[in-house]
Design goal:
Its main location: secreted. InterPro entries: Dev_reg/Prot_inhib (IPR051950), Thyroglobulin_1 (IPR000716), Thyroglobulin_1_sf (IPR036857). It contains seven helices and 17 strands. The chain is of the alpha+beta class. It has a three-stranded mixed beta sheet with strand order 1-2-4.
Length: 410
């Protein structure tokens, strides 16, 4: 019977194959005895399985480096579809030809047996999909609700979109994080959000929020900023994963960066890396540290702005009397007193979304810049959550312009 390994086992085999291909020739000596140009010349490769040759939405496979010496032949695991038979497998059997496809796992149906059925993964993300499907069936689906997208492992994709408004980044648990862009029908291309997700992981590891100059820099959409600077030395990186794009290129001093010295530099003026908020923070910190180094233990009057990981001002700022929403340059959009109950929940997401959107159909905001719980668009009113997504727990999900008829969940 065909043997199906868990994906982690396949990943381990893949890693071994790659390491063997990389280090095998080195271990063999400078003459590259194991792998030469002639090694694969007389090797007869087996034909790839049918699904691997087709590679469409319903018939496809996972192309991997071959486990044979020098990786002469292509190797592919056919992806099984939901409901097809599979097996947990035996690690001692190397004959792996099939695996449950994206979003599926081999579910054991009989205790004590290694056989199973390729079944849909049961994760928080897939449960969101099930909730959507259930609401569509029972008539409680809002017209602006969107079915959750999950990745091949059943986890949340890095973005979420509000139709006609904005798209924003989410972490692996589906919670909103830094990164927002105007609505797009191709968010998978426009919002990779890896920089934003990497930052969240760094915060968990370190145990606190990171300040300007301590961490990599992201773009407003959550991708990596193409120029990164560490200890005043700058270089170009891939905007997806932050890996240096010219690893052999010499680093450039931060004061010398320009279109001539760095291929990825886009600013019209040379020598500009830090945004206004970053510069303000670093200037205050420099003065603070200078006094501390001189032996002062109590220092008053220092204020540090709250900066986002793209170097601009965070949407919520505050002083001793007020909390206020600002744009990315720090200009005040609206403010409330610290003593006002609205200050406690202030997030300014709606105020910022209005600036991000190109559409004239802007969302309605409360006095603190948050989304108003009742939103109206094109003659229909609906309830939304704090991120602006439609929520509906019982019909009707929308009413006409008379918002008083609408009951929103608390």
């Amino acid at each position: 019977m065909t043997v199906i390994f868990y994906k982690k086992i396949v990943t381990t085999m893949l890693l071994f194959a790659i390491l063997f291909c990389i280090f095998g020739p080195i271990l063999a000596g400078e003459d590259n005895i194991l792998c030469t140009e002639e090694t694969c010349k007389d090797i007869k490769c087996d034909e790839l399985p049918p699904k691997c040759q087709i590679q469409n939405a319903t018939h496809n496979g996972l192309i991997l480096p071959s486990m044979m010496t020098c990786n002469c032949c292509e190797y592919c695991l056919e992806n099984l579809n939901e409901g097809e038979e599979c097996s947990m497998g035996d690690i001692s059997n190397p004959d792996v030809t099939e695996i449950c496809g994206a979003g599926l796992y081999c579910k054991n149906t009989t205790p004590g047996e290694s056989d199973g059925i390729c079944s849909r993964m049961e994760t928080s993300c897939t449960k969101k999909q099930d909730d959507y499907d259930g609401k569509r069936e029972n008539g409680t689906l809002g017209y602006m609700e969107v079915r959750q997208d999950c990745d091949s492992e059943g986890e949340f994709v890095p973005y979420k979109c509000i139709p006609g408004e904005t798209c924003y980044c989410v972490d692996s648990t589906g919670n909103r994080i830094f990164g927002e862009a105007d609505f797009t029908s191709i968010p998978e291309s426009e919002l990779k959000c890896k920089c934003s997700r990497d930052y969240e992981e760094a915060v968990v590891i370190i145990g606190r929020e990171l300040n300007p100059g301590e961490i990599f820099k992201c773009s407003p959409n959550g991708d990596y900023y193409p120029v990164q600077c560490m200890d005043e030395k700058c270089f170009c990186v891939d905007t997806y994963d932050g890996v240096p794009t010219y690893p052999d290129a010499k680093e450039v001093n931060i004061t010398d960066i320009s279109k001539d010295t760095l291929k990825c530099y886009k600013n019209k003026e040379p020598g500009i890396f830090y945004e206004k908020c970053e510069s303000e923070y670093l200037e205050s910190y420099k003065a603070y540290k200078a006094l501390k180094d001189e032996g002062f233990s109590i220092m008053l009057g220092f204020t540090f702005p709250n900066c986002d990981i793209d170097g601009t001002y965070k949407s919520v700022q505050e002083n001793s009397t007020h909390k206020y929403c600002v744009d990315k340059e720090g200009s005040i959009l609206n403010a409330v007193l610290q003593t006002d109950s609205l200050a406690k929940t202030m997030d300014c997401k709606c105020a910022r979304a209005r600036l991000t959107m190109s559409s004239n159909e802007k969302p309605s905001c409360d006095a603190n810049g948050n989304y108003s719980q009742k939103q109206c668009r094109r003659g229909k009113c609906r309830c939304v959550d704090s991120d602006g997504n439609q929520v509906c727990k019982k019909a009707p999900c929308e009413v006409d312009q008379n918002k008083d008829k609408l009951t929103c969940p608390k």
